[in-house]
Amino acid sequence: MNLSASFGGNLVIPLSRCNSCSHIRFSSPSIAGWKFSSRHLLSVVFRGNLKVVCRVSETETEPESNNEEERNLNGETEGSVSSDPIFINSEQGSQNVGDNQSAESDMLETKSLVNDDSDETNDAQAKIEDVQVASGSPLPGVKKQEFDESIRIPKETIDILKDQVFGFDTFFVTSQEPYEGGVLFKGNLRGQAAKSYEKIARRMDDKFGDLYKLFLLVNPEDDKPVAVVVPRKTLQPDTTAVPEWFAAGAFGLVTIFTLLLRNVPALQTNLLSVFDNVDLLKNGLPGALVTALILGVHEISHFLVAKEAGIKLGVPYFVPSWQIGSFGSITRILNIVPKREDLLKVAAAGPLAGFALGFVLLLLGFVLPPADELGVIVDPSVFHESLLVGGIAKLLLGDVLKEGTPLSINPLVIWAWAGLLINAINSIPAGELDGGRISFAIWGRKASSRFTGASIVLLGLGSLFNDVAFYWVVLIFFLQRGPIAPLSEEITDPDDKYKALGIAVLLLGLLVCLPYPFPFTSDVMTSF
């Protein structure tokens, strides 16, 4: 059977069909496909950038229909051949291509070369028909493993997914490719992402039970929706050589020590003197309890909201810090989060509770007199280190707060301030910190990765002037850079009220960390 090709103008050239496959056409380099290995064949056809593509399998990534109806409409039913002209766009399509006779002779030579290479094409077809899903690297946050035959998705299953699970009413598949131990479908999302996900997931469950897991994600290359189906066996969480509770307990004991040490200035100047003055650590007990209370409320809020959302959290690893007592905790998410709104609620719950309690205790510290009528003697310049704390101090203390004039304050101010600072550090929009998860839930994966890079750079610059920033950037870079594990459905935006809560957490963290730039004078601030 003959085909015809049009070279960017009025010239139409008949083409001969390859006897060893069902279709042969010319394709732009932007369309992926299985290609003949003979480069001479390509140069004989034309001297542009186009390639001859032999369609020998349904697994190629060219756009195609995902149900029988549309294939019938396009004249592409199995066993049939389309006789429509194939139009070729070439960079040299506007040049003179000679007359019809010379073009026909070129096509005859092309036909001869195709027949000569038929053995090679048949070998390629035999390899392609046996679909092997690439093992690749596992999805982020799951265990890397070798995929055997029992784990790979067979071709028959892929066909059922395309033709019976996905559809016009949910996700119209146009192409597919192996991806991370499963298969990635590209196409057009129909309707609301959340509803389409539910329909597809329900159909998958009816067809295959719990053998496979569906993800509806955003392709970072073109910001278009993609669907990923992987065997559930590939989603095994990482295991650690040391039991979680043992490691978390060890970190917790060290954190208790640093919380006590933080509130005993006499021991901070000489750390080794602790061994000779262990009894002095009890002096830091009240401050350690207040800061630990704020940390505890933070973590408990995470767990309560996570339980309500059906998200399983791991054991919290408290990170010790001799500067402020603790850097907070590292808490892993052990299962797959359903959607961005769930992640936002869990991530924002901890800082919101911690900020609320810390703020109340801070106000009480400014209002209540010290228990021993002496309290802690501080220089007012210390309040320049935080915009939030400095503003509240100026508002409540008024003329008492003057540059160069030491004053006595309730130590509760210092203890609550430490708790606020720990919550603020965890609210930095980077990696898998609470702030990083919040930024991902509100603005998506690409924006959160940019926030992470910017935060690490800013912390790196801040570490030139502040040792707390140095230790924190090291912690983020090596332990909590991410990436955040994929959610079941990452396309739907959270509700506006949850977005507002997340943004409030980020702003509160910023207010705590930014310095207070105004001088403390006798002028009374009327507002903050």
Automatic annotation (TrEMBL):
Keywords: Chloroplast, Hydrolase, Membrane, Metalloprotease, Plastid, Protease, Transit peptide, Transmembrane, Transmembrane helix. Pfam families: Peptidase_M50. Residues 57-108 are annotated as: Disordered. Residues 79-104 have a biased composition (Polar residues). It is a multi-pass membrane protein. It is found in: Plastid, Chloroplast membrane. The chain crosses the membrane at residues 346-368, 451-479, 500-518. Residues 288-451 form the Peptidase M50 domain. InterPro entries: EGY1-like (IPR044838), Peptidase_M50 (IPR008915). PANTHER family: ZINC METALLOPROTEASE EGY1 (PTHR31412), ZINC METALLOPROTEASE EGY2, CHLOROPLASTIC-RELATED (PTHR31412:SF5). Belongs to the peptidase M50B family. This is Peptidase M50 domain-containing protein. It comes from Rehmannia glutinosa (Chinese foxglove).
